[in-house]
């Protein structure tokens, strides 16, 4: 039935009902996915950049494997975790800038005028970024295998690596969404991006923590959660099934996801402020 | 307050932190099926009022009902009752027109079997069938506005809010949009709340007009009522020699309220109507004051705005000539005409 009004107003009688959470999320998510895939530059360049670094560092830093105690003979095995994290960080920017653009253009207000639920709006908006993260992860995995990286944990480990990297991408995308909702401009989201990359470089991304000589650097890397995300991914390639590393990796990724999503949901409510 | 009004507003206020009172205690009532023109300059409080009435901005105080529902306590019901095209056509450049409508239809809860049909019908209605599967990024301003209107109509709302729907449009696009808005009210009985800074738009479309300035409604009525308040026509006389301005003012002072316009030009009200024009010509002829131009002005909304606010509407002279929609207003109008 058409929506009832409290007073007698003329009606055209188009039947409507309230769409469910899943249907709403899928509708907004589809739009988010279409947006991402129609902006090829947005998809390709952030995907390629980590691969370029992977190629350069994989070649230039390979002598690092001769350091006593280095966990592998193939530096690419050690390095493969990096593109996954860098890609996830790019995904955070894509998600954040897209959402910020919707806020700036008033598109979010358009969605707010519908019976769309806040959860569906947030999850749907992150849908494109999530898919982008998944595509990136598959590409990085295939490139790794093609360049000689072997998985100590086997095919199962490669699948777990994909799952973990998607969780990480979703967590970072949620962080990007949170920044967009808090600041409301794409410029602000992009401005914060370098800070994310600092956390990557101040981690165990280039060397295992036990081989970092500078104490201050080692301490920062130890307190930096990004180290544990990298080490979990890396363990599947180098070590095999390292339960502790995986627990820490999934734990920190989930924690970041839960906190970012929770704060994003709260920020979304404030941003919409519909009565 | 009327229990059967489509929109009923009482002492509505919106204050912003560290800012002025954007809306300062307005009262208004819009009947079902009426087109209400909310006219005012930039920053007058028009858009803030629309944001409150569409539940996107909570009021600081006062109360309002839309479709009989309270905008604060029954926001969801209000949103289900209304359609809105806000000030900027908020569209996604990456999506096509049809994709926009399908998304809107899904979120508005239309059954999946009806969505394509509804999208197609609306695209046809706003003349976008051929462009339906093109990305919106390539649409002109007028096409975006028409799509914006179609999106507001997806769920067949009873009340439509249009916030400056024709700002920046060319005359042809503006005329097409007016036609559609007039048709919605005339044929479907839709209530339309239209904000505009174009006098001729309000004059051509609105059944009633509220003039808002500095957050307050300074005049309200039908266009003829408002013009009648101003009363008489006026004549503007510009002498060939600007030095003759004082002499001209002296000669015309006996007719009615007078205003000096610069370059010697004088505007004087004619309480006796157009018939006094002949007498003015005779007086000027006898006094041998040579005149460059002599223009008779019928009372216009421009005059109403000037009388009520003490100034002309910003940019009101920018509006082009546009065909008025059938059944409302005059056939052809110039701004303030």
Uncertain spans of chain B, ≥5 residues at pLDDT below 50?
317-323, 327-337
Poorly predicted regions of chain A are 10-15
Determine the oligomeric state from the structure.
heterodimer
How much beta of chain A, percentage-wise? under 5%
Total count of strands of chain A = 0
Q: Can you give the helix content of chain B as a percent range?
A: 25-40%
Please work out how many helical segments of chain A DSSP would assign: 11
Q: What share of residues of chain A is helical? A: over 70%
Gross morphology of chain B:
elongated
N-to-C CA distance of chain B: 33 Å
Number of E strands of chain B: 16
Query: How many domain regions of chain A?
Result: 1
> How can the largest sheet of chain A be summarized?
none
Whole-angstrom Rg of chain B: 23 Å
As laid out across the biggest beta sheet of chain B, the strand order is 6-7-8-3-9-10
What is the helix/strand order of chain B? EEEHEEHEHHHEHEHEEHEHEEHEHEE
Radius of gyration of chain A: 21 Å
**Element string of chain A (H = helix, E = strand):** HHHHHHHHHHH
Mean pLDDT of chain A: 88
* Shape category of chain A: elongated
C-alpha termini separation of chain A: 24 Å
Notes on the structure:
The complex is a heterodimer of chains A (275) and B (337). With 275 residues, chain A is mostly helical. Chain A has one domain (17-269). Helices cover 74% and strands 0% of the residues of chain A. Chain A has helices spanning 21-38, 40-60, 75-79, 81-105, 107-112, 118-146, 154-183, 186-201, 215-223, 225-238, 243-272. In chain A, helix 2 runs antiparallel to helix 4 and helix 6 packs across helix 7 (154-183). With 337 residues, chain B is α/β, with parallel strands linked by helices. Chain B has eleven helices and 16 strands. Chain B has helices spanning 46-53, 75-81, 97-107, 112-125, 141-152, 171-188, 199-205, 223-230, 245-252, 276-286, 301-309; strands at 7-15, 21-30, 35-39, 61-66, 69-70, 82-85, 159-163, 191-196, 208-213, 216-221, 234-239, 258-262, 265-269, 291-297, 322-323, 332-333. In chain B, the strands form four sheets. A six-stranded mixed beta sheet of chain B has the order 6-7-8-3-9-10, sandwiched between helices. In chain B, helix 6 (171-188) links the parallel strand 7 (159-163) and strand 8.
